[in-house]
Write a structure and sequence with these properties.
There is one protein chain. By secondary structure, the protein is an alpha+beta fold. The chain has one domain (3-98): Dimeric alpha+beta barrel (Alpha-Beta Plaits, 2-Layer Sandwich), CATH 3.30.70.1060. 40% of the residues lie in helices and 31% in strands. The chain is built from five helices and four strands; from the N terminus they run βααββααβα. Strands 2-3-1-4 form a four-stranded antiparallel sheet. The longest helix is centred in the N-terminal third of the chain and has 13 residues, at 22-34. It is elongated and about 40 Å long.
């Protein structure tokens, strides 16, 4: 069974350095969307990091996902990962979690 996770991405380098790897980071996230594990992602405001929402079988899988992110591999960001159970949600989320 899949669980929903919110990943807070905290930039650890200046934004100018982060932007140099933005394309490879987004390409990595696209693979997650193609696999059907990501629900949403984007930059935080102010732009000091991002948020990623996805489904994983457990926290270890979410951590592995974060470790493979080019932002992490280039020491540009660190992840803070939270699991939660969406008690109330839009109908489409049930299908997303079960797929």
């Amino acid at each position: 069974m899949n669980h929903l996770f919110v990943c807070l991405v905290h930039y650890t380098k200046p934004l100018e350095e982060v932007l140099q790897k933005l394309d490879v980071h987004r390409a990595y996230l696209k693979k997650g969307y193609d696999k059907g594990i990501l629900l949403a992602s984007g930059a935080r405001n102010p732009r000091d990091g991002g948020i990623i929402i996805g489904k994983f079988t457990n926290k270890d899988e979410a951590v592995r996902f974060s470790q493979a992110d080019p932002f992490t591999q280039h020491n540009l960001a660190r992840y803070e990962i939270f699991e939660f159970e969406p008690v109330l949600h839009a109908d489409f989320l049930k299908e997303f979690l079960q797929s």
